[in-house]
Write a structure and sequence with these properties.
The structure is a single chain. It contains 13 helices and 22 strands. The N and C termini lie far apart (about 60 Å). The protein has two domains: about 290 residues, FAD/NAD(P)-binding domain (3-Layer(bba) Sandwich), CATH 3.50.50; about 130 residues, no CATH class. The strands form six sheets. Strands 3, 4, 8, 9, 10, 11 and 22 form a seven-stranded mixed beta sheet that branches. Strands 14-15-16-17-13-18 form a six-stranded antiparallel beta sheet. Strand 3, helix 1 and strand 4 form a beta-alpha-beta unit. It is an alpha+beta fold. Helix 1 packs parallel to helix 11 and helix 11 packs across helix 12. The site of flavin-adenine dinucleotide (FAD) has 38 residues, from helix 1, strand 5, strand 9 and helix 11. Flavin-adenine dinucleotide binds next to helix 1, strand 5, strand 9 and helix 11.
Amino acid sequence: MAAVIDQAGRVAEPAREIPVALTTDVLVVGGGIAGVMAALAAGRSGAPTLLVERFGSLGGTGTAAMMNLFYVPYAASRGLVRELFDRLIARGGAIPGEFVVYDPELYKITALEMLAEAGVNVLLHTLVSDVILDGAVLRGIVVENKSGRQAILGRVTIDASGDADVAARAGAPFVKGREEDGKMRPMTLIFRMGGVDVPRLVDYVKSHPDDFSPDPLQCMLDLDHHMIRVFGFFKLVEDAKVRGELWPDCYYFRVESVLPERGVLTVNATRVYGVDGTRGEDLSRAEIETRHQMIQLAAFARRDIPGFEHSFILDSASTIGVRETRRIRGGYVMTEDDILAGRHYDDAVGVDANQQNPRQQGGHPPDGKEGGPQDVEARHLIARMFVYEIPYRCLVPRDIEGLLVAGRCLSVDHHADVYTRNQGTAMASGVAAGVAGALAARAGAPPRQVDVRAVQAALRALGVDLDLLSRLGPSPERLE
Ligand SMILES: Cc1cc2nc3c(=O)[nH]c(=O)nc-3n(C[C@H](O)[C@H](O)[C@H](O)COP(=O)(O)OP(=O)(O)OC[C@H]3O[C@@H](n4cnc5c(N)ncnc54)[C@H](O)[C@@H]3O)c2cc1C
């Protein structure tokens, strides 16, 4: 039945019954890096599992937004995460190292294969538009796809939508962006340039060290290990701005690559500030602005950067990359101080390790000026490795039962999000949510009441290393 409009221009949707299309034990919303791991872990734990994704392929920000870089050292990976890495590596789709860069197309098919082997049902091209509540208990979701509007029921739902769409619709508490002012990190449209003479580019960067970040993680020029990451070109960018060829708050150019011998580099340098990824109009504005920025950056590179003379825009991400939106409020809100202090939790269900500049230096702050001359300190920082535990309470929203979250929308504050928004934590929290969801569904208990020691035991049985922080401390020199 169609919506109706009255004389005053008000639109009403009549109440209607909708078909229950599917029923499952564990229902995962969002097939990004976190959701894939959640569904895989739930399936491996023996739970009938359904993964619902609005796009036509898996990987979310990692593939559709072209951010194909797991910010977790290969040496720190264990269990399902190591299995995924090794399968990608075996088919030539990833390079192990201080972080693991991967081929997004090979990720998409590898994820599908692993999910199929684990018996997970995958429903693509399906947007979750509402939730089904029984009091304060989440019973399922309402979806929209080419088949129309349908209900899907699950004993436990895992919100891995990145934006906490399910939790927000269910009425669970959340914050958006920075606690004090609600501002969010900038959005970026990533694009790829082909036809790059990478050895010539590397020679140029090596012969102009002052124009680039000294951080070995930001400036990787290791052609032998197929690793290219360059953050800088500060002077070239300033000169181009003086000539009016780049927009005013562009401060650097940044490229990274998997398999640079292909002559293809990923450009991560467009930025739009003051936009909210939970608003359709803001997402549209960011897509449009960054497309104009992309054209300027590609022309700049061709004109001014040795190695790019014959380059061309190969393609752009099929969606804008959103760094930050909602984070739920769970039984605990993890802070940066917790991470720096190496805090242990009795209910730790995951451990992540990644390199960061602490105290908000870097991390794409929402105020703009990232990497600019007024941010000189950030230009010269050298990142350190941080190892931190993720407590189960950060996955369990307050006030709503039957729901867990995984990935970018965990219960952490804006400063801890610098670390936890990365793909390492997305995967670790996904595995934890999948295992906990499967145990809760089997026990017929809400995830809040699940025995955390049983979850930890099941995670260890899947190969998760919950002792990494105890062994190495919070900021080890290296991970071996
Ligand atoms: C430009 C940029 C650069 C980054 N750089 C790095 C980096 O170098 N290293 C690193 O580790 N991390 C990086 N990150 C962060 C990291 O990539 C993401 O935070 C992480 O991939 C998020 O994973 P996720 O699974 O939680 O969420 P997402 O990747 O956002 O996945 C959510 C999934 O849910 C789907 N979805 C959302 N809403 C709905 C709905 N209502 N119905 C159905 N499906 C829905 C989406 O389509 C998507 O597939 C970067 C992020 C960006 C944007």
